[in-house]
């Protein structure tokens, strides 16, 4: 049986496809390559010695989805496909709701028609909004996301909850990611954002290789020990492995389940800069500027539920996150445009 991985060529998708292949799972990746490169999965194939299936196409294309479910014996779907740039979602809300919400609904319709009812969905800690207390566990009520991207994630969660209630045969995992960072230890796959990065670590690594001049630290006056924002950064390989644990659970249980995927530890922006400087030996010039609209002061997970129910926890610490992020960026200064694998 084969797993369908939508958005499989992207940052989290490619790392998860690698872990799935390494675990012996057959994988078919579906990606429209709107924010990724075919090269990521070529490198995954080279690293694992196993070739994932690949279809370039859109998750909103119902005809294509029906063909995939007819042609291939799919027994579950890991659904990464979606748009994720917060600022862009503010200026192009319809594109975000169409990709993220309509895309998810179209996928579920095709799954239901094919009798495939096992689904892992990429949600985000952003659905908690600005919680009153830390750490955040899964019982913390969802809040009000500050942007259309966040609202699209919350809407899909609600759609999937209703779907699970309507038909108890569904097995659905809503995985609320905290802040994925780093890269596979080989340095062959990693995060390759198009344009200027929105997220902290790719910004730092691009400063380190000279693609960007200096980092702006968004806010030095938060009520945190050093005044900068605190987040729960999780190594991408730990995060990827969390999907395998969730799939194992879904094979034995029906219903809709929610798990935080985080480490349970928060680091400030200044902690991140210092840790990166140590790992890379490069200085990161930065300036403290005003707060970024929509940012919260702090956000970290209570990671206990995933540990208890999935037997999964993050093992890789900050030093390894930084070393792996730096290996990827320094060996691929232009991301996947650096040294494409020859095609046969
Ligand atoms: P990414 O952009 O690297 O990967 C998403 C992939 O989906 C890309 O390869 C893109 O080409 C593809 N895609 C987008 N729209 C598509 C469509 N309509 N049809 C087919 N393919 C489509 O992003 P990522 O960081 O790997 O994120 C994966 C998922 O996890 C996203 O849903 C994102 O919202 C969610 N998420 C990411 C983070 C994070 O910090 N990276 C945090 C929380 C949640
Ligand atoms: C952001 C999104 C969130 C999304 C997540 C993953 C916002 C408000 N939130 O989360 O919805 O799920 O990315 O894509 O955009 N920082 C700087 N300088 C920078 C970049 C970031 O100081 O150039 C700071 C931020 O203020 C924050 C921390 O670094 O304190 C982490 O930022 P980022 O990596 O963008 O993640 P989030 O804001 O947590």
Write the layout of secondary structure elements.
Elements (H helix, E strand, L loop, with lengths): L1 E5 L4 H12 L3 E6 L7 H10 L4 E4 L5 H10 L2 E6 L6 H6 L1 H22 L3 E7 L23 H19 L4 E7 L1 E3 L18 H9 L6 E4 L11 E2 L1 E3 H17 L2 E7 L5 E2 H12 L5 E4 L8 E2 L4 H7 L7 H14 L13
Parallel strand pairs: 1-2, 1-4, 2-3, 4-5, 5-6, 6-11, 7-10, 8-13, 9-14
Antiparallel strand pairs: 9-12
Helix pairs in contact: 1-2, 1-8, 3-5, 5-6, 7-9, 7-11, 9-11
The chain binds nicotinamide-adenine-dinucleotide (NAD) and uridine-diphosphate-N-acetylglucosamine (UD1).
The site of uridine-diphosphate-N-acetylglucosamine has 21 residues, from helix 6, helix 7 and strand 8.
Structure write-up:
The protein is α/β, with parallel strands linked by helices. Helices cover 40% and strands 18% of the residues. It is built from 11 helices and 14 strands. The chain has helices at 11-22, 39-48, 62-71, 86-91, 93-114, 148-166, 200-208, 236-252, 269-280, 304-310, 318-331, and strands at residues 2-6, 26-31, 53-56, 74-79, 118-124, 171-177, 179-181, 215-218, 230-231, 233-235, 255-261, 267-268, 286-289, 298-299. The strands form 4 sheets. A 7-stranded parallel β-sheet has the order 3-2-1-4-5-6-11, sandwiched between helices. The chain has a 3-stranded mixed β-sheet with strand order 12-9-14. α6 (148-166) links the parallel β5 (118-124) and β6. α1 (11-22) packs parallel to α2 and α5 (93-114) packs parallel to α6 (148-166). The longest helix is centred in the N-terminal third of the chain and has 22 residues, at 93-114. The protein binds nicotinamide-adenine-dinucleotide (NAD) and uridine-diphosphate-N-acetylglucosamine (UD1). Residues 6-7, 9-13, 31-36, 58-60, 80-84, 99, 103, 122, 124, 177, 179-180 line the site of nicotinamide-adenine-dinucleotide. Nicotinamide-adenine-dinucleotide (NAD) binds next to α1, α5, β5 and β7.
